[in-house]
Design brief:
about 525 residues, alpha+beta, 13-stranded mixed β-sheet, 18 helices, about 20% strand, globular, SAC_dom, SAC domain-containing protein
Length: about 525
């Protein structure tokens, strides 16, 4: 298939162009094809690296390793013919003059992942980048695609439902905000502008006999200033950052939500004890200062345990009246607006992944039942759960969406995917969860998003940290493994020779000391972001 330039990036050696080299059509949004990026490649537009000094060459190699990571970034989608950053309700209220603009002008910048990199292409009208590529015979480009596509960090799933012989298209779109990009652990809470980590707008879209129903939910990290720095422990400690602007940060966040979505119900799913309990209490305290937002605390683990999915009815009973009053968006085949959504549910746990996904899928099921009853497909006593084939499809789509969101933020599939798919935790899923939790430490987004800008006038970001974790971790690992091996060997020999008891004690002491040293300096032994401050 043809290659498509989607953006440009800068490093010490000049300009790079990011090119989509493979795509897959995964469905349609409101009748327009949607593609998932399957593979990308960065191409250099010049050979300035030959004139760089040794430090710049080392830095360039690291920057290129980040770009290689971006080439494999999951969850990037685009469409040539429609703007997938805008939900159906907002789209229907936009002026016709707005929708006639190019896609890069229509798009909601919160969800455009290559927005920063497109700026240079737009400013210089492409010539600066297209000419060097063509002269170098790297690839042939179609100029009319050069501003496209607007790449969206998205989870996109679509399926067909039968619904009592009334065929329907059911679509899930989860748009991931770019304002506080980053991965689990390294991006927590809010910044001073009120933007939160892992903020996602999820749209559930039902198309049936010319009618289109849309319902929105949002998720995002707890909008306080807090962190959870990675160390070698299974669950690093949460720390609330005491800051004089914390009340303003929370207020900015919810004012932005009100302007975009209307009245907000903030559902907090965190535990009420331990580190989570302290964070939840601080959140609840700040929410008391906001009279126009309803805060609902629901300890998911306490009420639902590990698999009691149906207990979410307890939460629904608390919010059902306001939730149903918020409504959903509905238009008929002529585009006439029949219903509007007048508010939003904002859910969060700590990661805004597993507990949040289970809760959102439960609320989405309630909305789907209400919509199908409104359209006359179901009677007032019928629900989607009564139709096994369609119900499995519904739950599967929500589970797949949870997996994709988790992969983008945490690097693994969702831990409670089985709970969403089957309503219970399977043994295979439990084992998979343990493996997943061990591999959730990675990050490589600041460079491409523009949060960090490469400049020769700035000092090398890799000379600022004198302690290099990757230099010391192998030594510490060797000491631990060697100590454990020698201790075990000495104990085995102790039965034959009493002197081996002494060496066993010595090696056990050395091993314990090494373990204590590594644990005490766990943060330093872990790889961590180098380009930008965490806040």
């Amino acid at each position: 298939m043809k290659s498509v330039v989607i953006n440009s990036s800068f490093a010490y050696t000049g300009t790079y162009v990011l090119v989509i080299t493979s795509r897959k059509e995964v469905g349609s949004f409101l009748g327009f094809p949607v593609y998932r990026v399957e593979s990308m490649k960065f191409l250099a537009c010049n050979e300035a690296l030959r004139f760089s000094n040794s430090q710049e060459k080392r830095d360039e190699a690291y920057f290129m390793s980040l770009l290689k990571t971006v080439e494999a970034t999951p969850g990037l989608y685009y469409s040539y013919e429609t703007d997938i950053t805008v939900n159906l309700q907002r789209r229907c209220k936009l002026m016709e003059a707005w929708t006639s603009k190019p896609l890069w002008k229509q798009a909601d910048p919160r969800f455009v992942w290559n927005n920063h990199l497109l700026e240079e292409l737009i400013e210089y009208k492409l010539d600066r980048f297209i000419i060097p590529l063509l002269q170098g015979n790297i690839l042939k480009l179609l100029l009319y695609h050069a501003f496209e596509p607007i790449c969206v960090g998205l989870s996109f799933q679509v399926t067909q439902l039968k619904l009592k012989s009334s065929p329907a298209t059911f679509t899930l779109l989860s748009r991931r905000c770019t304002r506080r990009l980053g991965t689990r652990m390294w991006r927590r809470g809010a910044n001073l502008e009120g933007d939160t980590a892992n903020f996602i707008e999820t749209e559930q879209l039902l198309e049936l006999e010319g009618f289109r129903c849309s319902s929105l939910q949002i998720r995002g990290s707890i909008p306080l200033l807090w962190e959870q720095i990675v160390d070698l422990s299974y669950k690093p400690q949460l720390r609330i950052i005491q800051h004089e602007q914390t009340p303003q940060v929370v207020e900015r966040h919810f004012n932005d939500l009100y302007q975009r979505y209307g009245e907000t119900i903030a559902v907090d799913l965190t535990d009420k004890h331990g580190d989570e309990g302290q964070l939840s209490a601080a959140y609840a305290e700040e929410m008391q200062k906001l009279p126009n937002v309803r805060y609902v605390s629901f300890d998911f683990h306490h009420v639902c345990g590990s698999s009691n999915f149906a207990n979410l009815q307890v939460l629904y009973d608390k919010i059902s009246e306001e939730f149903e009053k918020q409504g959903y968006f509905l238009i008929d085949k002529d585009g006439k607006i029949l219903e509007e959504q007048r508010g939003i549910i904002r859910s969060n746990c700590i990661d805004c992944l597993d507990r949040t996904n289970v809760t959102q899928s439960y609320l989405a099921q309630k909305t789907l039942d209400i919509q199908l009853q409104r359209l006359g497909v179901f009677t007032s006593t019928e629900y989607i759960s009564m139709f096994p084939e369609d119900y499995v499809k519904f739950r599967t789509l929500w589970a797949e969406q949870g997996d994709e969101i988790s992969l983008e933020y945490a690097g693994t599939h969702a831990l409670k995917g089985d709970l969403v798919r089957y309503g219970k935790q399977t043994v295979a899923g439990f084992i998979k969860d343990g493996m997943s939790a061990l591999s959730r430490y990675y990050d490589a987004l600041d460079l491409v998003s523009g949060r960090y800008t490469v400049s020769k006038s700035n000092p090398s970001p890799f000379q600022l940290n004198s302690f290099e974790s990757f230099s010391y971790l192998p030594v510490a690992s060797a000491l631990l493994i060697g100590g454990l091996t020698l201790t075990t060997f000495s104990l085995q020999q102790a039965a034959r020779n009493a002197q081996h008891y002494v060496s066993s004690v010595v090696w056990a002491g050395v091993t314990a000391g090494a373990m204590a040293l590594v644990k005490a300096n766990g943060r330093q032994f872990c790889s961590r972001p180098r380009l930008c401050r965490l806040l």
